[in-house]
Amino acid sequence: MVTFLDARDSKLIIRFLSEIPAINADVLERVKMLAMDPERGNMCLMSMQYLILMRPPVRGLALDTIQQMWRDERFKEAKAQAEKVLRKWRPGVLEEEQAQPPAQGKAEAVGMPVNGLNADPVPVKAENLDPRKRASTGTPIAAST
Length: 145
Description:
By secondary structure, the protein is mainly alpha-helical. The protein has six helices and no strands.
């Protein structure tokens, strides 16, 4: 289908994405790859904006994808429009990026986002999982029967 898409087919791709029942990171990765072509970058970002506005469960994933596009040098033509979207929906990302100098040689984590969030999991100690051992004094509470 990608070979037949033209820059004027933005309504077609938006309608196609609106009818997909479950959108995950793989679908958005394929849409993101459309933006590598300078002619299709606007179409890709318009479809992402549609998902942000009309499909709130996918909003986080779409914003993560746009953020990846904004940081990646392969999407130079789409960077300005991606910045506009991020300025509206995630202004903190742009401020953090401007405040920190770019780290050289630092590889980004390659992982699937969970519910649209790219946060690292919080480490939990095994002893904190047992409710009988969560006393404020540090001694286990006797189980009452």
